[in-house]
Amino acid sequence: VHAYIMSYLKKEMRGVLRKENKKKQLISNLPEIFRNIQLEHHISAGDFPDFERMQEQLRVHDFSKFPSLKPKMMNELDHMLTYDVAKLMPLVRQEEMEMPEQLVHGGAFDGTSNGPFVEGIVDGTCEAADDDDEWVVTKDKPKYDEIFYNLSPMDGKINGVKAKNWMITTKLPNSVLGRIWKLSDVDKDGMLDDEEFALANHLIEVKLDGHGLPTVLPGYLVPPSKRRQVGSAE
Question: Model confidence over 34-76: pLDDT tens digits?
Fold first, then answer.
């Protein structure tokens, strides 16, 4: 994001005679510049820095000395985030499973490990999900399916690029969306089927409601078709 911002500011200074006046104008228009970059490059608004703080920092810099954008490098970075990092997710999951359990502190979740993601809460008791238990995402799945099939899945799945382009419209930070992707890609094949896509949407809505995300997907959130697969893996 910073590379796109600095490149834009540098480009706007080319051929300008009254550079100080142009610099003040660009700093003043920084919120609009952020919106333009966000739309042009499909970047989540949550990944942009605080514009007021950046306005203060920019006042002491010479925009003409900012480095130029390197499209090839940016394409390689985007490919790494979309494909290579996805391949590393199973290793990260394994590492997290080996770490000591960390409790979530604060408010109603004080002393619990998964925040609002408590395994199968039924009348105050906690149970792991059985194969026959109703999936908590089921009631909202029809609306998620409509979005899924509008993304033109191939062989019943959408790839990481299609999923990313839709998920960033939620304006959640990419770091959060990355965690949601990791939890939703239950079979770790780098794609999402209709159930995994519905799960991703459910987690997005939970996050937008202000709740935290679990480190490991609770049993009651595992899609029905994946429960035996997850159970055998564990």
Answer: 999 988 888 877 788 888 999 999 999 988 888 888 888 888 8
Q: Does pTM top 0.70 for this prediction?
A: no
d(C-alpha 218, C-alpha 131), whole Å: 14
Contact 46, 168 (CB under 8 A): no
Residues in the chain, pLDDT under 50: 101-129
d(CA 83, CA 194): 20
Cα 38 from Cα 171, distance rounded (Å): 10
CB 83 within 8 A of CB 207: no
CA atoms within 13 A on the CB side of 93: 22
Helix 19-28 vs helix 2-12: crossing angle, to nearest 10? 140
**DSSP line for 175-227:** HHHHHHHHHH-TT-SSEEEHHHHHHHHHHHHHHHTT----SS--GGGS-GGGH
The pLDDT of residue 161 is 86
> What is residue 18's predicted lDDT score, i.e. its pLDDT?
85
* Residue pair 118/112 in contact by the 8 Å Cβ criterion: yes
